Amino acid sequence: MTDTFPLAELGWASDFLRQLTLDELATLTPCRISAVHRSRIEALCPTGPLSLLPPAGLSTAEIAVGDWGLCDGTRLLRLLARRSTLARRAAGTGADRQLIAANVDTLFIVTSCNADFNPARIERYLALARAAGVAPVLVLTKADIAPDPAAWQDRAAMIDRRVPVVALDARAPGDRLADWCRPGQTVALLGSSGVGKTTLANALTGADQATAAIREDDAKGRHTTTGRHLHRLVQGGWLIDTPGMRELRLSDAGAGIAATFDDLDTLAGACRFADCRHQTEPGCAVQAAIAAGTVDPARLGRWQKLRREDRINSETLAEAHARDRAFGKMTRAALRDKSRLRGD
Ligand SMILES: Nc1nc2c(ncn2[C@@H]2O[C@H](COP(=O)(O)OP(=O)(O)OP(=O)(O)O)[C@@H](O)[C@H]2O)c(=O)[nH]1
Ligand SMILES: [Zn+2]
Prior knowledge:
CATH topology of the largest domain: Rossmann fold
Keywords: Cytoplasm, GTP-binding, Hydrolase, Metal-binding, Nucleotide-binding, Ribosome biogenesis, RNA-binding, rRNA-binding, Zinc
Number of helices: 11
Cofactor: Zn(2+)
Binding site for Zn(2+): 271, 276, 278, 284
EC number: 3.6.1.-
Bound molecules: guanosine-5'-triphosphate, zinc ion
Domain CP-type G: 96-248
């Protein structure tokens, strides 16, 4: 396997080039981060894989697999602004966002042509992708064993007409994903357990995940595995597969939710009250659309649930405490009322 990659093949593009000063252009080498450890960083650069020291004054927690940086061959000197960022944070902890991947172009939202198919989950992933700045594609696996894969494809297309839908056998995707898996492109997979992510990743990288990493012949002739989380695709391009990818959840995704439910978002703007909850308020444009049959009430329910979930997952520690306190107060008041009614 060759270990050298022209920059364009690694995903280098003009919006990264533009960030370099003339001096940097003359003296430093662009590199793509393939793994991040506590005190070392693995990267791919045009001359091959490198193990680098982190930049002075920058915690490795601020570096993501897929990031572009500039190095002098020994140390990563700085990171370049990202095109997209996938991150997460634990609910209600207010913890800093944990970076999962950077500069992913396409997120394959994977679900199966069976009971795993769930519009609410697909919408959640669509919102997550859009909030991160990544283009979503719906991939329906197990098309080979579904009685009517076209029907599943139609159901998926109904969720969001703007999103491409591909139904396939994850074991043999052929060139069905060739629009997104090509030189310079970076993809990632998201979906629940058992839908075929590992199977698809293996097919796209042409190998077992454990062996798909790029191997470097070092001076002693030993093999060192690099590119741990940045896997080269058979058709060109890269697959980012970090452990956190599988536990991605919605947070700070308000803009992604609005983009995914833009029909409801627009209607809500026409409600009489700015804080309309779209239940029984007079002048509610959303309820009017439901009454007119142009909006599915189930979709309104999913939108509201997702917004609540995002709000809770995005709140800071102080906000979470305030919510708990308010809830405690409410419960205590309710208990007091109850005992008053009982005449205690
Ligand atoms: N016939 C068929 N089998 C599939 C397809 N995709 C996945 N499978 C099978 O489904 C099972 C689960 O697939 P995995 O690739 O392990 O699923 P996963 O999404 O990686 O699951 P986790 O590792 O739990 O996240 C395996 O036995 C696969 O062989 C498909 O498109 N067609
Ligand atoms: Zn309303």
